[in-house]
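Posting this for the archive.
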Amino acid sequence: MAISVVATAQTKKPTTAKRPTTTTQTQKAAPRVNPAAKNPIAAASPSIKKAVNSNLQYKEVNYTIRGKAHGFGEGEWISLCEPGKNGLQATDSVQLQGEDFTFSGKTLNVPYMKYLVVGQGVHKTLVEVFVEEGNIHVDITADKRIDKVTGTATNNIYTPYRDSINTIYTQMYDCTRESMRLTNSAADREAYKLGIDSLRNQMVSYTYTFARKNMNNWVGIYLFAEYHKRFTPTQNKTLLAAVPAKFANLPLIAEIRRYNKSRK
């Protein structure tokens, strides 16, 4: 999912150097700290870390992200970020080489949602990308809420979902902006509010449908983790029944069962 606004031009010349960040950054010599933190649904279910960390099927693999960023300033920095307690934290940063950029490293063989951030302050673009084994291809364009993330199985599955949700988010943003006009009457503001509520319900409904079709892969599990508190008890019950055996023992699934039971 991309959030695009105007990028500020940079005067620095492109280099291959990586800049230090003010947030935690993994160094090659640093000891390995709980690799289970690289699980895509760890944020939704911290207890899943223990299960992943103790399971020998989860091992370190190599990934490469190669991309192009069109319409940004010369030498603009692009960061690979992950969710943290205080928002997104950069784990790696490079400068654009013309329009090109590359990230590479190790991750667990479990897709992990990260974010590419390019630009400064409010003038930036944020792109979702599942970091997983293989060669990931990214194409970003400034000033547009579009992006392409392909090349690996999870990203290929997630792309149509991201594109559809981007469309809904854009409509919600436009509706919210219009509702804030001081010249609007009370009736107009109420109409915009109803429109926003309708779009929000549409987003949840689409997410449920997409998750249900993908419960046999990490995209479905990820969306279930992110949205189960927005789904109805009946929807959660249906998705729980569709969880395949390979995911059935995840602590997250037990937590969702307990959460759904508490809503009855």
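Residues 1-17, 20-54 have pLDDT under 50 and may be disordered. The longest helix spans residues 186-213.
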